[in-house]
Design a protein that fits this description.
heterodimer; A: about 290 residues; mainly alpha; two-stranded antiparallel ribbon; B: about 375 residues; alpha/beta; five-stranded parallel β-sheet; about 20% strand
Chain lengths: ~290, ~375
């Protein structure tokens, strides 16, 4: 493999893993935007989405239907997490919310361990022919197109629809929205649901592409996506996308030229550098109203 | 307020009472295994192996007439948690310890057992660091990693390999195996083209796969565990790698073949033979299946032997006094399910219990590999 070809291959590898980071990071940013809360259970939502996708695939045999069903159910799960774990504590201190988030994350991952006996599961190969070399570019391009399309759609919804306006309003000032007759609870719940659906999409696609499912798979993804969200600017949707893609590409190129032992270091080193030099992230805006 | 306090104290007293069975005559043995976390599946399997043996021993009257009670603590495959688990076992007053799935957790826990004067029989973990630390009451029942490295390198030469890639996972076992493999390769004048690290549970290994393919290697050594191994193999094949992949015993599980699916061609592992190849293995298999309604995995037979070896040593020494036990085990020639277990002065097995196996895609199992195949 020549130098240029190698570079392009690693760039593509990075863009794909970056697209998954970005989809999950969007969920962090959406929720942070409206609630100023880091939903640390989000990685586990990603894991749940992947498992649901596999379960539905076993029943329906159709990838498209199973991903759609998984997104719907995971959205409900995300909403439930909000209602049960966060809603009762909305007016308490930020540290209580943080602890709740960690608690919710532990409950979800250990619940999944209990249900799956800690075993590894794999997507059936016929779901998408994995071994044929020719099918690879098709799969990769499909993944990228789907991920980017969903991100742009979300960006449009938040920027131009009634729901989006309500979300931005809640982000600006929850209490005033409440006084103005906006159903704040519904808007926040829907935000959780939307973020969770995106995580389920990422979970389903990532497992299809990479293969294995395991109850602890959400942990690293959650942390990496969190780093991506911070890099891009927490609360900013274009920032989450940029952060995710940037992180994926840097990891892939870093693996090639500095060694794979350093792969995870990049994510966190980049996050620390961004926090030092651009505390609001690359595309973060002034406090208040960012989304 | 005071009533509440008294209530809480009562509950705490009650709970602390729960953890320590009052039956003084029972022989308490600690078990240190990953029962949650990424390796829980295999930890549970080994625990089943221990329990099966303990049930049989108790049904036959116990060890020197004392009932054998296993107390399991979870190390969660986390070296930090293993230390806590070890302290708990010591605080429960166990008289010997068995266990050890991954080397990292075993190494971090073993000093506590040594300080408390407890015999520690390590069933599966096999980093050479475990015995190099020189704690004389720690015995390793699985062939040390250096044997694996030798066998893997022999296999590479058998398959006329010119240049190899070594992939490991950065933990105690896999790093140790990777180092020994590199030493073997250097000594034999072979070429290790690249050494890469694949973090545990990292779904995306494509950057590593691309880096390996860029080196044009004709063999890949996987020093790690089965789940990530399946993932790596699948992505290697998908990107066009056609050579063989050989793995250490950490990846020796049927799930490696099932996970990799049609990518599992030319796949070799170093592993203990499967129970049905042992004399007396059928009995073990049916006993295991009856008790736990599932099939035993790689280390259940060795776990089963661990308990019997310990029982034999305790009966021979007439108690759990550690120096007598250590002398006893050093002299023992124990005939177990998995073959003869006897130890050299490094407290490692005299005879390597592992063999080279190759994936058979028609039955989705590993079968013993013969040279020249």
């Amino acid at each position: 493999m020549g130098g240029v070809e190698l570079f392009l291959q690693q760039l593509l590898n990075g863009l794909i893993s970056g697209a998954f980071y970005a989809l999950v990071a969007l969920g962090y940013s959406l929720v942070y935007g409206v609630l100023k809360l880091m939903n640390f259970a989000h990685g586990e939502i990603y894991m749940a989405g992947a498992f649901l996708c596999l379960i539905f695939y076993q029943f329906t045999g159709s990838l498209f239907i199973s991903i759609c069903l998984a997104m719907i159910l995971t959205a409900i799960l995300g909403w439930l997490v909000y209602r049960l774990a966060y809603h009762p504590l909305l007016n308490s201190s930020p540290s209580s919310l943080l602890i709740t988030a960690i608690g919710a994350s532990l409950v979800l991952s250990n619940g999944a361990m209990f249900l799956t006996n800690g075993a590894y599961y794999f997507f059936p190969e016929q779901a998408f022919s994995m071994t044929g070399k020719d099918s690879l570019p098709v799969l990769q391009i499909t993944l990228l197109v789907v991920a980017v399309a969903v991100m742009l759609a979300l960006q449009w919804i938040v920027g131009h629809s009634r729901w989006g306006r309500a979300m931005r309003a809640v982000a600006l000032d929850r209490e005033t929205c409440f006084l103005m007759g906006i159903n704040v609870n519904l808007v926040v719940g829907m935000t959780f649901a939307a973020g969770s659906a995106l995580a389920a999409l990422a979970g389903g696609l990532a497992c299809l592409y990479y293969g294995g499912l395991h109850y602890s798979m959400g942990y690293m993804m959650g942390i990496k996506a969190f780093a991506a969200a911070v890099i891009g600017g927490v609360g900013s949707l274009p920032g989450a996308m940029l952060g995710g893609l940037l992180l994926g590409v840097l990891e892939a190129l870093g693996t090639q030229w500095l060694g794979s032992a350093w792969k995870d270091v990049f994510a966190f080193l980049l996050m620390v550098l961004i926090l030092i030099f651009y505390p609001r992230g690359l595309l973060g805006q002034q406090e208040g109203g960012r989304m | 307020m005071r009533i509440k306090l008294i209530l809480v104290c009562c509950i705490l007293l009650f709970l602390s009472g729960c953890q320590q069975p009052n039956d003084d005559d029972s022989l308490k043995v600690g078990v240190l295994l990953p029962l949650t976390g990424p390796e829980a599946y295999y930890g549970q399997d080994m625990l089943n192996g221990y329990q099966l043996a303990a049930q049989e021993i108790n049904a036959a009257g116990g060890i020197s007439g004392r009932e054998l009670v296993l107390i399991a603590e979870d190390d969660a495959s986390d070296p930090a948690q293993a230390v806590t688990a070890a302290s708990r076992l010591v605080s429960f007053g166990v008289e010997a310890v068995i266990g050890g799935y991954s080397s990292g957790t075993t190494i971090s826990a073993m000093r506590q057992f040594a300080d408390s004067g407890l015999l520690f029989l390590v069933t599966a973990a096999n980093s050479t660091v475990i015995t190099e630390l020189g704690m004389e009451q720690t015995f390793m029942l699985n062939a040390p990693v250096v044997y694996e490295a030798e066998m893997l390198w022999e296999l590479a030469q058998e398959l006329d390999t010119m240049s190899v890639a070594v992939l490991h996972q950065g933990d105690g076992y896999s790093q140790n195996l990777a180092e020994h493999l590199q030493e073997q390769a250097e000594a034999a004048g072979g070429k290790v083209a690249t050494v890469e690290v694949v973090e545990k549970n990292s779904a995306d290994v494509s950057p590593v796969v691309t880096a390996v393919l860029a080196e044009n290697v004709d063999m890949v050594f996987w020093c790690g565990y089965h789940a990530d191994g399946a993932n790596v193999l699948k992505q290697l094949r998908r990107s066009g790698y056609q050579g063989p992949m050989a793995c250490g015993d950490g990846a020796a599980a049927q799930d490696l073949i099932l996970g990799a699916g049609s990518a599992a061609t030319d796949l070799y592992v170093i592993a203990p033979p499967s129970p049905k190849d042992f004399p007396g293995g059928a009995e073990f298999l049916s006993g295991y299946e009856q008790s736990f309604s599932l099939e035993p995995r790689v280390y259940a037979p060795l776990a089963y032997d661990t308990v019997y070896l310990m029982a034999a040593a305790i009966e021979k020494a007439g108690g759990c006094e550690v120096s007598a036990l250590v002398r006893g085990i050093a002299e023992i020639e124990f005939q177990g399910l998995t073959g003869e277990l006897s130890f050299n002065d490094r407290r490692e097995l005299n005879k390597c219990n592992l063999i080279i196996m190759k994936a058979d895609l028609t039955q989705n199992i590993f079968v013993p590999w013969e040279e020249g195949e």
